C-alpha cells in the first residue's frame, strides 16, 4: 500500500481501496491506477458534459460510516459587531433616565402588597402597556392601585368604572374586557395568582408572548425568553442583528434567541426599549449622536440621507 493509505490520511486512497476490492485488484491507490485497464475512447466520451455527469452517477462508491464521529456543526451565526454595539448601547443608556427606567412594568406595582398581588399588578401593567406610552400606563396603574388592583377587586368593578380608571391607554375598551376575563381565569384556575409558565400565561385573554416572557422575568424572576416589543424589533433590524430582516416581534424574538447568549436576554429588553425611546427613535433616529453610527448599517444610510 502507498503511505497515505497505510496511515489513513487520504480519503481518496481509502475509497480507491474499496473500489479495488470490487474490481478484484490488490494494492493501494497507486497500484490500482496501474492495474486499471485503459479503455479506448467511446462515443460517450465525446458527448457534452451533462451526459458525462449522468454516466458518472451510475458508479457506485461506498463511503465509510461515520460511526462515533460527532456531526460537524454548520457554524453558529452571530452579527459581526454586536459585542461592540452592545457596549456602546450600555454606554448610551448609562444614565438610566428613559421612560422605561422609571415607569416600566417593574415600577408599576405596589411594593408593600403581598407577592401574588404584586405579580398580578405586573401582569396588569404589561396588559395595559401595549400600544401605549409608559407615562400613560403608569398613570393608569396609579389610579387602578388607588382603587385596589387585586383579582377580586377587578372582578367586583363594573366595566364603566374600570374604563374610566384605565383611560386613555390604547384600546382601553378591549383591555377592560381582557382584564375582566383574565382576572376570572386567574381566580378560577390559578388560585388568584398568575401562572408560572409561558404556556399558561399566553392562554390568558390579552396576553401575548412578549408579555408572557416579561411577566416570567419581572414577576417570577425567571428568564424564559426575550421580551420583544416594537423598539427591540425595530432596533434589532436596524443594527443587522438578525440573519435576515424580520416582519414582526415574534419572528425577531426567535431570531435573536438563536444567537444572543441567554444571560443577556433579560437585559436586552430594557436596554433597547430605553435606547429606542431616547435615541434610536422610530422616526428620525438621532444617528449623528449615536456611538454606533459607524457600524450600524441603517445609521450609515440615514447619515448619508442627512448629509444630502
Ligand atoms: S446609528 Fe441610528 S439607526 Fe443605528 S442604532 Fe444608532 S440611532 Fe439607531
> Whole-Å distance between the termini?
71 Å
Contiguous uncertain segments of 5+ residues: 1-68
Instruction: Provide the number of structural domains.
Output: 3
Question: What is the quaternary state of this protein?
Answer: single chain
Strand composition percent: under 5%
Which fold name fills CATH's third level, the topology of the largest domain? Endonuclease III, domain 1
EC number: 3.2.2.-, 4.2.99.18
Main location: nucleus
GO molecular function, one term: 4 iron, 4 sulfur cluster binding
GO cellular component, one term: nucleus
Structural overview:
- With 308 residues, this protein is mainly alpha-helical.
- The protein folds into three domains: 35 residues, no CATH class; 97 residues, Endonuclease Iii, domain 2; 110 residues, Hypothetical protein, domain 2 (Endonuclease III, domain 1), CATH 1.10.340.
- Helix content is 55%, strand content 0%.
- The chain contains 17 helices and no strands.
- α7 runs antiparallel to α13.
- The protein is elongated and about 55 Å long.
- 33% of the residues are buried.
- The N terminus is likely disordered.
- Bound molecules: iron/sulfur cluster (SF4).
- The site of iron/sulfur cluster (SF4) has 14 residues, from α14 and α17.
Amino acid at each position: 500500500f502507498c503511505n497515505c493509505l497505510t496511515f489513513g490520511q487520504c480519503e481518496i486512497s481509502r475509497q480507491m481501496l474499496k473500489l479495488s476490492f470490487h474490481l478484484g485488484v490488490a494494492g493501494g491507490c497507486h497500484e490500482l491506477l496501474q492495474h486499471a485497464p485503459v479503455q479506448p475512447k467511446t462515443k460517450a466520451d465525446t458527448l457534452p458534459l451533462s451526459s458525462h455527469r449522468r454516466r458518472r452517477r451510475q458508479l457506485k462508491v461506498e463511503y465509510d460510516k461515520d460511526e462515533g464521529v460527532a456531526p460537524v456543526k454548520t457554524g453558529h451565526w452571530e452579527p459581526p459587531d454586536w459585542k461592540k454595539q452592545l457596549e456602546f448601547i450600555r454606554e448610551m443608556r448609562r444614565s438610566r433616565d428613559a421612560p422605561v427606567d422609571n415607569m416600566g412594568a417593574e415600577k408599576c406595582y405596589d411594593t408593600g402588597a403581598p407577592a401574588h398581588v404584586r405579580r398580578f399588578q405586573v401582569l396588569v401593567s404589561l396588559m395595559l402597556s401595549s400600544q401605549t406610552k409608559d407615562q400613560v400606563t403608569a398613570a393608569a396603574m396609579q389610579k387602578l392601585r388607588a382603587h385596589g388592583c387585586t383579582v377580586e377587586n377587578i372582578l367586583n368593578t363594573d366595566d364603566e368604572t374600570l374604563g374610566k380608571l384605565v383611560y386613555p391607554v390604547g384600546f382601553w375598551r378591549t383591555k377592560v374586557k381582557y382584564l375582566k376575563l383574565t382576572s376570572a381565569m386567574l381566580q378560577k384556575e390559578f388560585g388568584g395568582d398568575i401562572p408560572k409558565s409561558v404556556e399558561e400565561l399566553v392562554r390568558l385573554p390579552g396576553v401575548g408572548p412578549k408579555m408572557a416572557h416579561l411577566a416570567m422575568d419581572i414577576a417570577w424572576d425567571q428568564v424564559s425568553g426575550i421580551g420583544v416589543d416594537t423598539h427591540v424589533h425595530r432596533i434589532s433590524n436596524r443594527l443587522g442583528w438578525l440573519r435576515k430582516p424580520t416582519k414582526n416581534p415574534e419572528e425577531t424574538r426567535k431570531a435573536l434567541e438563536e444567537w444572543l447568549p441567554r444571560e443577556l436576554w433579560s437585559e436586552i429588553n430594557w436596554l433597547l426599549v430605553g435606547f429606542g425611546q431616547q435615541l434610536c427613535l422610530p422616526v428620525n433616529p438621532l444617528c449623528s449622536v449615536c456611538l454606533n453610527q459607524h457600524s450600524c448599517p441603517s445609521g450609515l444610510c440615514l447619515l448619508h440621507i442627512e448629509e444630502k
